[in-house]
Structure formats: C-alpha cells, structure tokens
Design brief:
The protein is α/β, with parallel strands linked by helices. It has one domain (about 10-130): HAD superfamily/HAD-like (Rossmann fold). The chain contains three helices and six strands, in the order E-H-E-H-E-E-H-E-E. The protein has helices at about 30-40, 55-65, 110-115, and strands at about 10, 45-50, 75, 95, 120-125, 130-135. A four-stranded parallel β-sheet has the order 3-2-1-4, covered by helices on one side. Strands 5-6 form a two-stranded antiparallel sheet. Helix 1 runs parallel beside helix 3. About 25% of the residues are buried.
C-alpha cells in the first residue's frame, strides 16, 4: 500500500492504542503514541473509534490527550456529526486499525510502514516514556 493522499484513520482504543485492561486504561502499546503523532504530522485525520462510552470514553480521550494525541473526532465520522436513527453508526474512514482484525493487530511500526510505504527511524534507548523512542524526521 502506498497512500499519497491524506487519510481518515479510525483507531480502536483497548487492545490497539493500549493493552486491553477494560474498564481500566491499559499501558500504551509500544510506539502507539509516537506513530499516531507522526501520522498527524503527515496530515492524516485520526478518529478514536471505540466501544467505550460515558466516563470510560472520557478516560480514554483524556489519556490520549495526556500522551499528546487529540483526535479529529471521537466515535463520529466528523466532529459536527449528530447521531440520529436516519444514519448508520458505522464510522467512515479510509483505514481502520483494530486489534480485532483478522490476524490481530500489527506492531505500530508496521502500521506506519504500511500506511506511508516508508520505514520509520526507530532506536532502542532510554526516553521519558519508556525504553523505546521514535526518532523525528
């Protein structure tokens, strides 16, 4: 896959961005936030697409904000979308990233490589957020 255009990417939370610990918020998956930041820097629109609702959804949104990610929309195709029974609840996106895919979730480095057709520069080392760091371009 080589996507030159800017994409709308719907991303699940539990088991995808973080390890599945529902109803709690799990630990971030390796490179999840670094990859999402790079995708946003590349101009892609990220939608949080999750089963969570109410205070559990707020926990997920706040956790992502704390880790540097503010989504284009949350459980909506676009920020202004108003749900009524005349439209489908399916989120529109060009790509869906979810741990429930056939074959499971790929590593976030592989996700980035598939979307951009480039290999991210990654190094193993100490950082404030863990043992791995995602190098800037």
């Amino acid at each position: 896959m080589n996507f030159q255009d800017k994409l709308v990417i719907a991303i699940d939370f539990d088991g995808t961005i973080v390890e599945d610990a529902y109803p709690k918020v799990g630990k971030p998956r390796i490179f999840a936030f670094e990859t999402m930041k790079r995708l946003q820097q590349d101009g892609h629109r990220l939608i949080l697409w999750t089963y969570r609702s109410g205070s559990k959804l707020e926990d997920a949104v706040n956790f992502c904000k704390t880790n540097g990610i503010t989504f284009y929309a949350v459980n909506q195709s676009f920020p202004e979308e108003q749900f009524d029974n005349s439209v489908s609840r399916k989120i529109y996106a060009d790509i869906y990233i979810d741990d429930r895919n056939i074959g499971g979730i790929l590593g976030w480095g592989e996700v980035y490589q598939l979307i951009t057709n480039e290999t991210p520069n990654m190094s193993v080392g100490k950082s404030k957020k863990g043992l791995f760091s995602f190098l800037k371009r």
